[in-house]
Amino acid sequence: MHDIDEIRRKAMEILEQEVGGPAAAAAQAGMSYSQWANLRSGAQDSKTGRPRGMRKATARKIEAAFGKLEGWLDVADLVDRNYQRHDAELELVVKAWNLADEADRAVPLAWANAILTARSKR
């Protein structure tokens, strides 16, 4: 199990992927690159020697800057664990959907309806 600071650091990596790297993420968050990098890496506090944590207010500021819902940084590692793979899979499905005609779309629609019906009965 990870503590909240580890979860938030992982979420910051996801944000970096979304915008093209740590420098772009820092700029979008309104931080210097070094501030962003220290938060993401959990750099040691010079006074205590312990990894720096992220205050709740800082987390909410970052979420707002990226258009994320409040609390996203706290759960992003669970929601987006397979972020890149799912993104690529969804892109593939959308491309196929856009090429398909009405008859071709009937099969995935039937599958989706069957899954949703089965899961809603649990």
Provide a descriptive summary of the structure in words.
Helix 1 packs across helix 2 and helix 1 (4-19) crosses helix 5 (72-79). The protein has 7 helices and no strands. It has helices spanning 4-19, 22-29, 33-41, 56-65, 72-79, 83-99, 102-120. By secondary structure, it is mainly α. The mean pLDDT is 86.
Structure in a nutshell:
71% of the residues lie in helices and 0% in strands.
Keywords:
single chain; 122 residues; mainly alpha; 7 helices; 71% helix
Gross geometry: elongated
Helix count from the secondary structure assignment = 7
Q: Quick check: average pLDDT?
A: 86
Please mark out the parts with pLDDT under 50 across 5 or more consecutive residues, or reply none.
none
Work out the strand percent. Answer: under 5%
Portion in helices? over 70%
Q: Which structural class is indicated by helix and strand composition?
A: mainly alpha
Q: SSE order, as H and E?
A: HHHHHHH
Q: Terminal Cα separation, in Å? A: 28 Å
Q: Main β-sheet, in a few words?
A: none
What is Rg?
A: 19 Å
